Amino acid sequence: MNDAPLKILLDRETIARRVRELGEKITRDLREANLCVVPVMDGGMIFAADLMRGIHLPMTLSPIKASSYGDATISSGTVRLPCGTPEGIEGKDLLVVDDILDTGRTLEVLRIRFRAAGAASVRTCILLRKESASHLPADYIGFEIPEKFVVGYGLDLAGLHRNLPDIRVASSF
Ligand code: IMP
Ligand code: MG
């Protein structure tokens, strides 16, 4: 797929502004926390890298790898954690950072895992929430978006386009 025909949904300046706002809010809210940021790989890595630098608090970092889509644009329904649960989360106040809330299964699975692993608390910060997921809670949400399959800024289609600096619509699924 060529980058050019994909329509921009959120440009890089808009994303950067919102990520800064989220960082400021999290800095105010989590002053007392024993904070550990948990980027959900691979999709959440670029968002998490920018967000972390806008959170002015002591923090540790424990990424987790999760996958539910494979190469498709519709969720397989099964969330896999191919590398298991990371170390260093026991007793910590976790801030799970992911790219997008779609069916919500990823966050559901992660919440259960992290509680079982002894996390003190689990908060979630999601860059995008799809219309169909508007009933699913997250502590921090960047943007509400329509029911489209999007790529860029960490989000992929079959492994591609994660490096696009903007968020673009890949299809109308
Ligand atoms: P959920 O478990 O169905 O909420 O799906 C969350 C995961 O599915 C995200 O972390 C993404 O990796 C992937 N995903 C869902 N919608 C999209 C999309 O529009 N573009 C790219 N990846 C998506
Ligand atoms: Mg993904």
Q: How would you characterize the overall build of this protein?
A:
- α1 (12-29) packs across α2.
- The relative contact order is 0.21.
- This protein has 173 residues and is α/β, with parallel strands linked by helices.
- The chain has 3 helices and 9 strands; from the N terminus they run βαβαβββαββββ.
- The site of magnesium ion (MG) has 3 residues, from loops.
Brief rundown of the structure:
This protein has 3 helices and 9 strands; from the N terminus they run E-H-E-H-E-E-E-H-E-E-E-E.
Q: What pattern of helices and strands is seen along the backbone?
A: EHEHEEEHEEEE
- The number of strands is 9
Helix count equals: 3
Give the number of domains.
1
Radius of gyration: 15 Å
Give the rounded overall mean pLDDT. Answer: 93
CATH topology (fold) name: Rossmann fold
Classify the secondary structure makeup into a structural class: alpha/beta
Principal-axis shape: globular
Mind telling me which CATH architecture this is? 3-Layer(aba) Sandwich
Terminal residue distance: 16 Å
| Spans where pLDDT lies below 50 across 5 or more residues | none
